[in-house]
Amino acid sequence: MRFDIQPITRFTGIELADIQALEVTRWREMLTWDFSPSARLVAAAIDQRLLGGGVLLSAGRPVGYCYYVRDESRAAVGSFFYLADAVDPAAATSLINATLTELIHDRHILRIEAQLPVSDRDITLSAFQHLSFAAYPRLFMMRAVDASRDVAVEADAGHILRPWTPDDLDASAALLTEACQGEIDTAIHVQYSSRDGCREFLEDLLRHPGCGQFDPALSLAALNRATGSLCGFILGSRISHGNAHVPQIAVHPAVWGRGIGRALMRAFLAHTLTSGYTAASLNVTEANARAVTLYRDLGLREAHRFNAYVFQR
Asked: In the chain, which residue ranges form alpha helices assigned H by DSSP?
């Protein structure tokens, strides 16, 4: 069977709707995640010619795509997906190789990032490593919420929990910057490297559905009882009917080991239950042993594995 690759800028969202529909189904089946809000944004971006990348064709029919977004010096691969019953592994590999090679040959792009949780893991790993990307294993962890154990508790006598609000954004960005210094996630996500980047990242969580629809009922701040200063926070989102998610949790390094992260997670799980959700999930980098241990201790279990990929020129 003959395959061809054409630039995604030659297509409309409607022309790629069959691929998107199957991708939405894959997200729901693999991660219990409603990807349709993000898919609608992608379709609009395709119509506006805002994405780079390629579309795989079989006898003129679109059967796969791999697209990216970029700024002046950084690109993020948003998706690599294809119709498995119409595409063989060699053709799928040629699609992702073409997109990555296009990015690497653009000397203005200094950094490329990708996290593709529902893509074929073997094909993506081979393609990214062949082009000298670093791979960082990540875990999608989840569990059902349970009224018998999901009860909120205070961190300790020196700290209190209260609802997180957008007024906490600046303090949260500053805290997140401190919490990420020297940590593995800074290597994966360049926005964690600066206060402005952290603020931009948090603003994206509030405004866009990429990590679920922000739910203020699940979002909490931990404060120093004496000074009122922020020492930790957790943001919650809705990823599908009945399923809540943690797109971000952070505790200031000065108070690590005092149970604040555990208290935030327990409060999140309790609020998840009272808000009508039936399950909770999060993503974590496997090398972050401290976090993985906490989540397992709270009953979350690995439901899916994928990699984050980074190329730094």
From this structure: 17-31, 36-47, 89-105, 121-130, 169-180, 184-188, 195-207, 260-274, 289-297
